[in-house]
Amino acid sequence: MRLLPKFLSCVLLAGISLPLVAQQKPINRQALVERHRVIITNTDTLSSLSVGNGAFAFTADVTGLQTFPTYYEKGVPLGTQSEWGWHAFPNTQDYKFEQSLREVELNGRKVPYAVQVKTPGNKEAVDYLRANPHRLQLGNLGFVLLKKNGQEATIKDLRDIRQELNPWTGELKSHFTLENVPVDVVTVGHQEQDAVAARVESDLIKSGRLKVVLRFPFPTAGWADMGTDYTKPDQHKSAIAEQKKGAALISHQLDTTKYYAALSWVQSATVAAGKAHEFVLTPGKSEKVLEFTCRFSPRPRSTPAPTFAATRQNSQQQWVTFWRSGGAVDFSGTTDPRAKELERRIVLSQYLTKLQGAGSQPPQETGLVLNSWYGRPHLEMHWWHSAHFALWGRPALLEKSLTWYARPDVQAVARGIAKRQGYEGVRWQKMTDPWGQEGPSSVGPF
Q1: CA separation for the pair 222, 153 (Å, rounded)
Q2: Cis amide leading into 300 (omega within 30)
Q3: How many whole angstroms separate alpha carbon 329 and alpha carbon 349?
Q4: CA-CA distance, 262 to 283, in Å (whole number)?
Q5: Tell me, what's the pLDDT at 225?
């Protein structure tokens, strides 16, 4: 129901009951959500926008794709991350977890904790154990935009920028011009598959000045960064594994980690290898529209990637279902000047946490955007990012990740920590990985 006007709320708090005759009008949920559409008209690096499904997220710049990742690197970067996308550098030095243990006096006895030991040999082991495994940036999907003189456009060459995210449908619409030629893009994320799809309309396609490129980075294993290293092309492999009309399957391998990106498109276009670990989708010059999808997966799938139309329909249906479920709060009935901003934060926070942290694992601090703490889940994030699902009447979204605690492999590690420290039961980790292993830290284990 609608929140009561401020004066009436005060009356009720004072213990006086009044009839609620006019207060039972149902909330117009679509109007509530859509009045908080996000509109961007400049290249603010803190205003990149995401689409996703809770276990996979794709963050875009003002072009609707990830065309200018370097420009956004120090703001909210342009990430493509999933629950399953993890990598570990080979443990060539045979580092042991025991090298991170240090005894601390507690309640009259010595208790071993996994900390950042600084002694030679042990420090290197701790550094390795903290950074491995780390979450992968699966790939960068962006445009190649060419100016009339053939030079590649920069973000400063774009004009008439207008981008709008509609949380009600999960659709991101982007408009800009390059040398007075308009470009319109619609970007959506599939809600059951780890796929992002886009529709591009522009005369730049006919003139051969707009292409799409998929780039695969090497990981950095950094504590808090974008997680992309393009300076080591010889240390990983990528190739077109399969190609047919309207589709291509591309593989990417780093050490023992291998995953796939399935590209599909509707209009005439071709895909070919470009620079190292780059694959270029070139539309036919008879076209003004290009619709395409990129689906990431840990294994090749027998079914083709869904079309843009199917992905868009799926996004619209599933997001509307989300917003029509559970509770809603409408502050339009109050004149309190704080109400509009509070309502905006409530709506957009629900959108962000649904797409960034509603999967089968505990959430990462920074969602599925960049690698804070090497991209590892932190269990206190369950409170900050996920507990609200149940409070809003959407317990199924929380339940998906709570099952992680019941997994035998995860429980075995947690029981091992408790036993090592002389306790019964389990001791849950703060900084962990998808398999429950504890990350050494001078803060977390305490």
Answers
A1: 30
A2: no
A3: 13
A4: 17
A5: 87
